[in-house]
Amino acid sequence: MQQKEEKLGLWLLVFVALGSMIGSGIFNSPKDLIRVANPQGTLVAWVTGGLGALMLALVFVYLATRKPGLKSGIYAYARDGFGDYMGFNSAWGYWSVGWLGNVSYLALFFKTLNDLLGERALSPFTAFLIGSAL
Question: Which of 13, 71, 78, 132 has the fewest CB neighbours in a 10 Å radius?
């Protein structure tokens, strides 16, 4: 039986990086940012964030082409470069940020729900049940 070679291509890496970087706040931040900053400051913030996201994506493209044998993503790159301890901490940090990102989705969901239904439409217990179900 032939074993399928598992490789991450350029486009898959680009979309994985984009999916990891674009959180729920991107849909709400323009409105919040424009309230406290002028349009030029807002544009500078967006361009800076976009360049940072692009640089991170390019780092992962470089690492994938430089070390194609590593198959575990951030953990494997950090472990290969800095040892087991940093590999573990990188994986743990990435996992933690993923969970915090999911919490931000819930926060944006309930903020939008309160805007649509009114301030007191949901009791805290109802919000807890909906959040637990999601």
Answer: 132
User: What distance in Å separates the CA atoms of residue 74 and residue 80, rounded to the nearest whole number?
Assistant: 10
- Each residue's pLDDT tens digit, 38-88: 778 778 888 898 899 899 889 988 988 888 888 878 889 889 989 999 999
In sequence order, the 6+-apart residues with CB closer than 8 A to the CB of 22 are 53
φ, ψ of residue 62 to 5 degrees: the values are -60, -45
Length in residues, the chain: 134
Cβ atoms < 10 Å from Cβ of 127: 16
DSSP string, 84-105: HHHHHHHHHHHHHHHHHHHHHH
Cβ–Cβ < 8 Å for 13, 64: yes
Helix-helix angle 39-66:10-21, to 10 degrees: 140
Neighbour-count burial of 77, counting CB atoms closer than 10 A to its CB (0-12 exposed, 13-18 middle, 19+ buried): buried
